[in-house]
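Batch manifest, entry 17 of 40.
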Amino acid sequence: LYQSPAGPIAVIDVIYGLRTEIASSGNDFFAHKTGFTRKSLAAALRLAGFQFVFSRTGNLEVTAVAFKNQPGARDASLLNLAGDFTAEPDPTRRPNADPAIESANLKSRGNELLSKGKLDEAADCYRQAISLNPRHAEAHLNLGFVLREQGLHDDAARSLRQAIQINPELEDAFYILGAIAEEQGNFQAAIEYLSKAIELNPTFEVARRDLCRALYRGGQYESAEKTIEKGMSLNPNNADFHYYLGNLRMHEKQFERAIACYEKALALRPDYAEVHSNIGKALMELGRYEESISWYRKALALDPDAVGVEAVDCLMFARSYQNDFTPDLYLTEARRYGEMVMAKARPYQDWTADPAAQALRVGMVSADFLSHPVGYFLESVLAHLKSPRLELVAYPTVAEEDDLTARIRPCFSAWHPIDNLGDEAAARRIHDDGIHILIDLSGHTSHNRLPVFAWKPAPLQVTWLGYFASTGVPGMDYLLADRTSVPESDQAHFTEKIWYLPDTRLCFTPPTAVDKLKPAMLPARRNGYLTFGCFQNLSKLNDGVLAVWGRIFKALPQARLKLQCKQMDDPAAREALLQRFSRAGIASERVKISGPVFREAYLAAHAEIDAILDTFPYPGGTTTCEALWMGVPTLTLAGNTLLSRQGASLLACAGLEDWVAHDEAEYIAKAVALAGDIDRLAQLRAGLREKVLASPLFDAPRFAANLEKALLEMWRLHAGGK
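Output type: structure tokens
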């Protein structure tokens, strides 16, 4: 009977007539596994938790054997069926002579230990079970699960493949292999494993959900949407599918539609923290950052572990768009973030970096070694940072690469991706590489690895380029700045020490791939009116900016505005923005709006613009430099933070100090005055590219020399104990 295809529970029923008792036990997982209901495995996973599913699965076999061979054990066995693993095994119990039964007992013991979080001991039990019965597929499966939990992915995969070789119908083994492959960035393998798990069990909702994510992360967006649609057809009340559909809409820049998907997910699961966080992201993209901040706070209150420090990053980023977010308030938030990451770190106290090495090993950690603003500022600097006294090592935090990646990769002596390493493992990798100075290029932006810096894997750690404020991480020693962006009186706004570069904290790489694009004649000459431009992210267009622009356009009734940004592909977002312009006094017929285009077309669009109106308190960076290269100056408003002075720093470095305003009245007056001096504006445009190319803002050899000098001096001071 025990060998019957009907399975062990059917055997129990034949012997003891317990079908009713099992069915009424309230355990959905056993009901599913024994055929008493068609409820999906996903329901059991949610109710019991993944580890407990494995624990309970193991006891089915052991219980069947116990019922057949030891009728007196009926009550204890039923306790196991109910999932009560609190009882310790009897140490006086004699081992069963049957290796298969003893192997099953050991697996059961391993499951008990696993349910208590004793991973090492559980793994030992599974190994003993396998030694007694090498064909014990579920012991291999459970060992694979434990090894994955321990971060031993390669060993876990070997155990899981062994389980599948013994029993090719173990959908859980395929599922975990898919999870491992996704964690390692092998999305195609993840897709294949998860698809197989679903083939074996079409009701395996968790596998279908994870398949959606793997397809999305692997760039197979159409297949991801089809998988989501299939999942919804099977269970329209699964909040996960609405969540992932929202993520697809986010990718498509359809932010209003994304929010609608997220709202459906919340209607099904109101405490879904990740959905709250993503609504915050969508609202920030739409420029509704007050609402965005509220949603981030809800997410963190619901489940800080689920949304992690990423939600804190986003919250801090969202607050940077607020006019009333003072440096002191920011520093408080940054210090709180630092406390969060330090609570999970064990900082290194000694390092493998050779203090007597002829060349300093300088590590750079970034998600943006590609066609991204950080990449545009970094490329020309790396090309000239070829000193025998420096050895550069890259630690990309994402798998994505492009043409710019290919151009800068030879500048590094080593390229070590850490996107699939946890914080501790990434810190260990950097530490073992003997890095002298580790540079963060992301700050609190997307895909940053600031928690790695909390482990202090290098003796000196520096933040630069990709962010505009303090990281708040205690292990970050320096922040690179210039005296325009961070006056000496503002050094108290940072947890890091400020290291001043002589000219500028930024150096831009000219877009030489489109050198054929030349600055065009001033449009106002042929139009008879000024055309202002803005290529900023929609989230920078706060109501204060629109109110000031409204006063400019009231004073210049013929002026026009060309606005281009990624969010304008969304019709709802476009209409909402036009309504905001109207409320600010700028009629829709005076505004030309367009969505995202390729870089060459974006640069060419500057031919239609006489001057850029900068946003505040979050000004342009890359867009300001690109406009200068295209002969178009930017009018900026300097504030009281590194971020809000970024435009002022760039323009001062380019020799355009008179394009910097220091209050709203001056900003308006300078904009209006442009209409009365078209000749001067045309003259500036004609020679602006040559002017800025000769400035420190575009002088990569000069900047690289200054950066090298700074790094060497930092190390000298560190070596001297200062």
